[in-house]
Design goal:
The structure holds 2 protein chains of 2 kinds. By secondary structure, chain A is mainly alpha-helical. Helix content of chain A is 75%, strand content 0%. Chain A is globular. By secondary structure, chain B is of the alpha+beta class. In chain B, 36% of the residues lie in helices and 25% in strands. Chain B has a 6-stranded antiparallel beta barrel with strand order 1-2-5-4-3-12. In chain B, strand 1 and strand 2 form a beta hairpin. The chains are: A mainly alpha, B alpha+beta.
Chain lengths: 165, 289
């Protein structure tokens, strides 16, 4: 029960922070993708199956607050969590660089999915984003936020499968 | 193979590949939803709205504390200056110039509200889209306050009012406003002076410029850079004569039936704080006709 509560509330909290960042720092070229960091963390510590469910739930929360076509984020986050569920056995805890590498890889997959969805649904700004310098800002902000968020999430043992606790 | 054995082997296959099966199911369902449905009313996550409001309230508090600290340090600096210059008059002038931005914005909004002829609801932006691809805002008012889909939204900034966009999703205590700079936005607008009509589309990624396609380009000579663009009489959503933007300098293309011109919005969408949602009333319905 606590496990479900933790996974139910943490994405909402992170998403609340991320959407509020846009109001608090209106001049930022792009925002850090905090939900992506959470997805990578969850998938890494819980494997592909649980990771995908968490990814789909996080995407659902994101779709609810976004004006993007509904289920876009569910799709992106689920695929990301499936991919990063495969990293379950990697040694992340001892190495501070690995989370950053994982998140950069996740951003790469996300941009690839943006490209596909942009073409599929004629959302030109999804493609334009990839051609602009804003991508670099997003990568920079997300990379900076990664160690902080990983450390904060590690304070919640319920967010990891029992093997890690 | 007997039927029961086949069932068992199928179940075993699904169990063995449950990760991939789940992925395929979620991808298929997501693609069907994305391509088929346009969900316009969603029971928004109430805890999230509470959180978003909380973050904004917290930031206001931090801002106020910061402003007070700034004020204290400014006063200290000015005091030292006083000791050096012994100029009391200069001190009083400098301290009186201090202002609180958020309060100013609220006062500006209140003053504008009293002059507005439309029935309206004042709302505060509590969140923006989680990424910068879609340019929408979450506001702290919803169906409870009478908001509905497609209601026009305007704002005031530095004494100038302008069109913001329209309501696209409504929940009980919050709503999502799609701004005119979102790439999916389309507004029927006209050149204020000549009344030439056209369709105005949202901006490209990370830009604030809108594009206006004039339906009839033969009269383009009457349009000049810096001219005002307003909402059209023919719009079914927006009331007419609301300022939208100013025409940017452009090159006149020859031998073309349609002209496309860049328009700079009246409002800076990064600095918006309070929005006015126009409710349908008699004035609105008459002006729309």
């Amino acid at each position: 029960m606590r496990y479900i509560f933790a996974y139910g509330s943490v994405p909402i909290l992170i998403l609340g922070l991320q959407t509020a960042l846009g109001v608090l720092f209106p001049d930022l070229v792009h925002l850090p993708d905090l939900i992506l960091i959470f997805c990578v963390y969850s998938a890494h510590y819980n494997g592909r199956f649980t990771g995908q469910l968490i990814g789909a739930y996080s995407g659902l929360c994101e779709d609810i607050v976004s004006s993007a076509p509904f289920a876009t984020h569910i799709l992106i986050r689920t695929i990301l969590c499936y991919a990063f569920g495969n990293t379950e056995r990697w040694q992340v805890q001892d190495n501070p660089i690995t989370p950053i590498v994982l998140v950069i890889l996740a951003l790469g997959i996300k941009y690839l999915l943006y490209l596909m969805l942009g073409v599929l649904f004629s959302i030109t700004n999804m493609i334009n984003l990839l051609l602009s310098t804003a991508v670099l800002y997003e990568i920079l902000y997300t990379v900076i936020a990664t160690p902080v968020l990983f450390s904060l999430l590690s304070l919640l043992p319920r967010l990891r499968s029992n093997e890690y606790n | 193979m007997p039927k029961s054995n086949r069932k068992v082997s199928n179940a075993a296959f699904v169990q063995r590949h449950r990760d991939t099966v789940l992925l395929i199911v979620i991808i298929t369902v997501s693609l069907i939803i994305t391509t088929t449905f346009r969900i316009s009313y969603i029971g928004r996550l109430a805890p999230l709205t509470v959180l978003q409001r909380g973050f904004i309230a917290l930031s206001d508090l931090v801002q106020q504390i910061g402003q007070r600290e700034e004020q204290v340090s400014a006063i200290n600096a000015e005091y030292e200056q006083l000791l050096r210059n012994l100029d009391i008059y200069e001190y009083s002038v400098q301290t009186s110039g201090y202002s609180q931005f958020s309060e100013e914005r609220l006062q500006e909004a209140a003053a504008f509200s009293s002059t507005l002829t439309f029935d309206h609801v004042i709302a505060r932006i509590i969140a923006r889209d989680p990424n910068r691809i879609f340019r929408s805002f979450t506001i702290d008012k919803g169906a409870k306050q009478g908001l509905a889909i497609d209601m026009p939204v305007i704002a005031i900034q530095d004494g100038r009012s302008g069109l913001v966009g329209k309501v696209v999703q409504v929940a009980n205590g919050s709503a999502i406003v799609e701004s005119i700079i979102d790439e999916r936005s389309v507004v029927v607008a006209e050149h204020a002076e000549s009344q030439l009509s056209g369709t105005m589309r949202g901006a490209a990624f990370n830009k604030q410029l809108l594009t206006l396609d004039f339906i009839d380009a033969r009269e383009i000579e009457r349009v000049r850079g810096g001219d005002l663009v307003i909402t059209s009489r023919f719009s079914s959503i927006y009331p007419p004569h609301i300022p939208v933007g100013t025409i940017q300098p452009f090159q006149r293309a020859r031998n073309s039936d349609q002209a496309t011109i860049d328009v700079l919005p009246i409002l800076n969408f990064n600095r918006l704080n309070y929005l006015f949602i126009l409710l349908p009333n008699e004035i609105f319905s008459e002006s729309s006709e």
